[in-house]
Design a protein that fits this description.
Radius of gyration of chain B: 13 Å
Shape of chain A: globular
Radius of gyration of chain A: 13 Å
Strand content of chain A: over 45%
Mean pLDDT of chain B: 95
Oligomer: heterodimer
Number of helices of chain A: 0
Structural class of chain A: mainly beta
Order of helices and strands of chain A: EEEEEEEEEEE
Helix content of chain A: under 10%
Shape of chain B: globular
Strand content of chain B: over 45%
Helix content of chain B: under 10%
Chain lengths: ~110, ~110
C-alpha cells in the first residue's frame, strides 16, 4: 500500500525544538522529491519546505528559514523536519507529501504553548 | 508570502454543478502545473486534480480541471452531499521559489 505516516508531533514550549518524521512505503522513496505542508487550526494549507530526491537541495518558506531543517534518510525511507526556536504561530497539523505521486500523510499535530 | 485567490464559498443543489476559480500570476498558475485538493472535515487533503486536468485513480469524471492564462478552474458536476468539503488549488511559483496554495473554497450542497 502506498502511504506516508507522520510522527513526532506533540506539545512543546515556546523556544523549544521538535523533530517530525515521515515514513514512506509502497513507492520508490529515494526517487521522490518530498514536501512538508502545515495547517493551523481552522486555517488554510501552507507550504513549509521541500527536498530533492538525494537530499542535496532544499527549499524553505520564509517562515521556516533559519529555524527548520528538512532532511531525509533514503535507506530508512524516512523524511524529517527538525524544528527549532518554535513559536506559538508554528502550532499546526504538519503533513508530509509527495506532490509528484499525489500522496499525503495523515498529519501530526504540533502545539507550541507554555 | 502571497496565496492564490479563490472564492471563500460556493454552493449548489444536489445534482447541479459548481466551478471554483483560482487566480494567480505569470510566475505560478500560468507557467506551472496546478493541482486541486479536497479536504473533508477533520481529514488530510486529498488530490482530486493534478497537472491542471488529470484525475488520480478513484476520482470520478464528474470532477474536472482546466487552466487559461493566470487562472485555473475546478468543476464538479452532479453534485453530491459527499462533495461538501474545502477545496484548495496549488502551484509552484518560480519567482518566489515556493509552493503556493489558494485561500480555500468551501463547497456547500444545499
Amino acid at each position: 500500500e502506498v502511504q506516508l505516516v507522520e510522527s513526532g508531533g506533540g506539545l512543546v514550549q515556546p523556544g523549544g525544538s521538535l523533530r517530525l518524521s515521515c515514513e514512506a512505503s509502497g513507492f520508490t522513496f529515494s526517487n521522490s522529491w518530498m514536501h512538508w505542508v502545515r495547517q493551523a487550526p481552522g486555517k488554510g494549507l501552507v507550504w513549509v519546505s521541500r527536498i530533492n530526491s538525494d537530499g542535496g537541495s532544499t527549499t524553505y518558506a520564509d517562515s521556516a528559514k533559519g529555524r527548520f531543517t528538512i532532511s531525509r534518510d533514503n535507506a530508512k525511507n524516512t523524511l524529517y523536519l527538525q524544528m527549532n526556536s518554535l513559536r506559538a504561530e508554528d502550532s499546526a497539523v504538519y503533513y508530509c507529501a509527495n506532490f509528484g505521486r499525489s500522496i499525503w500523510g495523515q498529519g501530526t499535530l504540533v502545539t507550541v504553548s507554555s | 508570502q502571497s496565496v492564490l485567490t479563490q472564492p471563500p464559498s460556493v454552493s449548489a443543489a444536489p445534482g447541479q454543478k459548481v466551478a471554483i476559480s483560482c487566480s494567480g500570476s505569470s510566475s505560478n498558475v500560468e507557467s506551472n502545473f496546478v493541482s486541486w485538493y479536497q479536504q473533508l472535515p477533520g481529514t488530510a487533503p486529498k488530490v482530486v486534480i493534478y497537472e491542471n486536468n488529470k484525475r488520480p485513480s478513484g476520482i470520478p469524471d464528474r470532477v474536472s480541471g482546466s487552466k487559461s492564462g493566470t487562472s485555473a478552474t475546478l468543476g464538479i458536476t452532479g453534485l453530491q452531499t459527499g462533495d461538501e468539503a474545502d477545496y484548495y488549488c496549488g502551484a509552484w511559483d518560480h519567482s518566489l521559489n515556493v509552493y503556493l496554495f489558494g485561500s480555500g473554497t468551501k463547497v456547500t450542497v444545499l
